[in-house]
Amino acid sequence: MLGSVVAEAARRFGDRPALTTPQGWSLTYAQLDRYADEAAGGLARRGIGVGDVVALVLPSGCAYAVAYVALARLGAITVGVNPVLAPTERATACDVVGPTLVLAADGLAAKLPAEKTETIATATAPTGVLAAIRANATACSAAREDPDRDLAIVLTSGTTGRPKGAVFTGRQLDAVTRYDLGPRADAWGGGGPMLAGTQFAHVGFMTKFAWYVRTGAELLLLDRWRAADVLDIVEATRMPVIGGVAPQIALMLRDERFDERDFSAVQALVVGGAPSPPALVAEARARFDAAYSIRYSSTESGGVGTGTAFDAPDDEALHTVGRPRSGMGLAIRDENGRNGPAGAVGEVCLRSDAAMDRYWDDPVATARALRHGWLHTGDVGWIDEAGCLHLVGRDSDMYLRGGENVFPAQVEAVLTNHPLVRDIAIAPCPDDVMGNRGVAVVVPADAGHPPTLDELRAFAADDLARFELPEDLEIVDALPLTAGHKLDRRALGDEVGRRRLKKR
Predict the structure, then answer these.
(1) 304: which strand partners?
(2) Could you tell me which residues are beta bridge partners of residue 101?
């Protein structure tokens, strides 16, 4: 499926850039197709074929894209390993899937299985992309396309433990294209410059690359995500749509030259991956003078789920994550798996053709997540009368305070609107009497004038129950983030624990 889409894109778009590097050189659609064929021949000589798992420990760039297409043509399974993970984490990720071969960039092979790992030199020009793999490659026949064959494994973040591998077949990637492109799903062309703002190992590339190619889009690569660099690109290319996660949008708005720039071409911001606080949505809409759509999904959902409309009223745009895509189902289930009444809080469940096929080699976790045609997300929320989803948090994030359930995301959604707060997270801290108490970890808007605990509690008193209000406060310079720019709650909890010990 991916291999044939790239071949057709090469025929249609030829010398149009498919990926452009920060150094200014581009890999065209014709080169992407030809290099993928050559790389497939080189990988076949290494014994790679149908059903083999190959891990890519590569930066987000041309080599990754070429390898992904080559492996798809061989009928092999690609698993992306985020290169910004620590060496031990990269090794654990490989251990989860047990790859036949690991392709690792220079400097990223530490702790990987030496007998399976081949080091890849970083290309400095188009002809150098996967040069060692492509060298002396012999022609090989592409595997017969099978929509039900495993194509990709996308690893979950693993911030609360060992990651799991969400498996996607060609059929699910076709569904992602249909959901994301809607009426344009069968058309070719219409794409423009797109920023590759997250790692290719993430679901946002692994399940969507096929439709990027179908539109003839040009993926603009980054060595490292920096707000100023991104805004330079947006301004220079007159990019109409900015994609990213909420922390990235917040960093763009803090750019010291933001108000001097020309963003008149920007029509919309499409933002997922982490909650978008109402104040952030309002500020971004005003300062970019553009629509803002919040997208809610997960690795397991294939990166598609719900979204707020670009022209949504404030009640939807600021306080919900919107409605499911056309053709998808949304339900709230109680602890017994039954549908709750309207407005009831429960587990968010999605019915979607794009949802993962299963977890790799983990039937127990698969059985928990996929039940009776529904994906059980582990997120907690409720649906309002307009059909919009409101997220409360994750089951795994919830803590008990005096026998009452507290969802940190619900508390954060209120306190993030405090004028003295730039960023905030709530972490539980053990309490001998109540079981746990909430600690507000705050990045102040003004380091010289941080909020007090009493000010935060008073601000939220009308919107939160007393047991939900924070009972301790920590002021920090920044919140810990995962490699995917999401709040790292495990690291947050560890940091709060260390700070509590120091104060004893």
Answers:
(1) none
(2) 54
Tokens at 163, concatenated: 């990651």
Please state whether 199 falls in left (phi above 0), alpha (psi between -120 and 50) or beta.
beta
What is the pLDDT at residue 140?
77
The answer to whether 320 touches 388, Cβ cutoff 8 Å, is yes
Phi, psi of 434 (to 5 degrees): -95, -5
What torsion do the CA atoms of 337, 338, 343, 347 make, to the nearest 10 degrees? 10
Q: Six-digit token pair at 295?
A: 């997208």
For 331-345, give the secondary structure using H, E and C.
EEECCCCCECCCCCC
Q: Decide if pLDDT at 435 tops 80.
A: no
Report helix, strand or coil for 473.
strand
Domains annotated for the chain, with CATH where assigned, are 2-219 (3.40.50.12780), 221-394 (3.40.50.12780), 398-503 (3.30.300.30)
Pairing mode of beta strands 193-195, 165-169: unpaired
Rounded Cα–Cα distance for residues 329 and 168 (Å): 19
Residue 161 buriedness (CB in 10 A; 0-12 / 13-18 / 19+): exposed
Q: What is the mean pLDDT of residues 231-246?
A: 93
Inform me whether the pLDDT recorded for 323 exceeds 90. yes
CB 381 within 8 Å of CB 392: yes
Q: What angle do CA 212, 269, 166 make, to 5 degrees?
A: 50
What's the pLDDT score for residue 401? 84
**Among the listed residues 298, 359, 289, 358, the one whose alpha carbon sits nearest the alpha carbon of residue 328:** 298
Q: Please report, rounded to a whole number, the percentage of residues in the chain having pLDDT higher than 90.
A: 68
CA 497 – CA 429 distance, rounded (Å): 7
Give the pLDDT of residue 504: 60
| Sheet strands side by side (includes 435-444) | 421-431, 435-444, 472-475
Q: Is 52 exposed, middle or buried (0-12, 13-18, 19+ CB in 10 A)?
A: middle
* pLDDT at site 62: 96
Alpha carbon distances (Å) from 56 to 123, 132, 152, 376: 15, 15, 11, 29
* Cα-trace Rg, the chain: 23
Q: What DSSP string describes 106-160?
A: TT--TTS-TTTEEEEPPPSSGGGTTHHHHTTPPP-PPPPP-TTSEEEEEE---TT
The mean pLDDT value for 256-265 works out to: 95
Which helix (H) or strand (E) segment is 169 a member of?
strand 165-169
Question: Is 60 exceeded by the pLDDT of residue 160?
Answer: no
The rounded distance, in Å, linking the Cα atoms of 428 and 492 is: 10
Q: What number of CA atoms fall less than 13 Å from residue 102's CA on the CB side? A: 28
Rounded Cα–Cα distance for residues 344 and 63 (Å) = 48
The reported pTM is 0.84
